[in-house]
Amino acid sequence: MSAREFNFDGLVGPSHNYAGLSFGNVASFSNVKSASNPKLAALQGLAKMRALAARGFGQALLPPQDRPNFRLLRSIGFTGTDAEVLAKAAKESPVILACAYSASPMWTANAATVSPSADSADGRTHFTAANLNNKLHRAFEHEQSARALRAIFKDEKHFAVHDALPGTPAFGDEGAANHTRLCKDHGSSGVEMFVYGRTEFDASAPAPKKYPARQTLEASQAVARLHGLSAGRTVYIQQNPDVIDQGVFHNDVIAVGNANALFYHEQAFADEAGALDQLRRALAGVGADLNAIRVDTARVPVADAVASYLFNSQLLSKADGKMALVIPQECQEVASVAAYLDGLVAGGSAIDELIHFDLRQSMRNGGGPACLRLRVALTDAEAAAMHQGVVMTEALYHTLVAWVEKHYRDRLDPADLADPQLAIEVHNALEELSRILGLPGLYDF
Ligand code: SUG
């Protein structure tokens, strides 16, 4: 059956800020406590969605989440009216207030893991909301992520949305950021590749020493079970613990795949040869040949890959059979990466085009083009069955730009999170957004 990939980009929420909440994510730590520009962040993300939709790629969005998370703040002992809760949290623990306000759901690659209907035992598209339990500010996203996914993919004949795995370290799950589907084409059975950073129940397995490994093997296996994936078409690969310690906190910071192509860094995996061998054998079973596009350390050191987010790119199939690489503009600014990319597109590989975007507001928190999107391959019938109000069109783009201009601030300092007016502004913005998207029950205000 033919299918088309949709990228569901996260619409950046009005409380986008730099709070330095992600230990192990170099950019988040470097920009801690600087002022953000939520309006610009949202407009940068919308510009990417619009441009890719205009090129004919399947493009939709996932909405921002309700912030601040008053339920979290009240559950840890901040009491009183909303304004009192905010004032007490700001005084006693500004960092927890920042967690409750984080706009991190914009990075929808972490919202869920998705298996298309061609891969699952029951022929439905499966989603498992990611528990993101490694970081406080992300660990409560899954409730609203599952809610939004259920609102968009409501038809149970086609779709199954699973709740997050148990929120405990053994099941650390970061969603599609560590999951890649390789295939001959989007509509036929593919190979699902899960990359994990550590194994909970094998103390002898290698693990990073400095920064956390957010994804466990046990979580990846649980998601594969929930989705009814076949063992022969599911591959588990260990991430190289040394690169996690260099700031590669998700596999999508060091590798990206599309169709039969895997674009990856030499140091991405703990056992490169073993990983490629597993993938080649699994892909042979679905009639595809792996096209491994390896970037050597000598050409691009890991530090440059992290600084530029070369691999946090989108690899998109074009109508002519070639692929475009959607990159952040930082790739043009890091000399080794810019030189590598010039050679790549000129050199006759499957990738013959670069499309770059200014996503600097998100990049400063460690979120590039690939973090900002969740891939969902859908047949025509499935695409017709999903909620249409989130599909990017010229009209929706203009409506959302006007909505952002009306509701978003153009500067947010860490201290502004204590301003009770901000909570009211976010609430009003989201109420209007649920009407724009035609999802009236989206928020549980
Ligand atoms: O989880 N940054 C996010 C970036 C997520 C990127 N996603 C993928 N690679 N798929 C994170 O580390 C920073 C928030 C702050 O510091 O304010 C943050 O959460």
From TrEMBL:
Active site: E174, H250, C371 (nucleophile)
The protein's Enzyme Commission number: 3.5.3.23
One Pfam family of this chain: AstB
Reactions catalysed: N(2)-succinyl-L-arginine + 2 H2O + 2 H(+) = N(2)-succinyl-L-ornithine + 2 NH4(+) + CO2
Gene3D superfamilies the record matches: Succinylarginine dihydrolase
Domain of life from the UniProt record: Bacteria
Residues that hold substrate according to the record: 19-28, 110, 137-138, 214, 252, 365
GO molecular function term, any single one: N-succinylarginine dihydrolase activity
Enzyme class: hydrolase
Record keywords: Arginine metabolism, Hydrolase
InterPro entries linked: AstB_sf (IPR037031), SuccinylArg_d-Hdrlase_AstB (IPR007079)
Pathway stated in the Swiss-Prot or TrEMBL entry: Amino-acid degradation; L-arginine degradation via AST pathway; L-glutamate and succinate from L-arginine: step 2/5
Record family assignment: Belongs to the succinylarginine dihydrolase family.
Role of this protein: Catalyzes the hydrolysis of N(2)-succinylarginine into N(2)-succinylornithine, ammonia and CO(2).
NCBIfam families for this protein: arg_catab_astB (TIGR03241), PRK13281.1 (NF009789)
HAMAP family for this protein: AstB
Quaternary context: Homodimer.
Official protein name in the record: N-succinylarginine dihydrolase
Organism: Duganella margarita
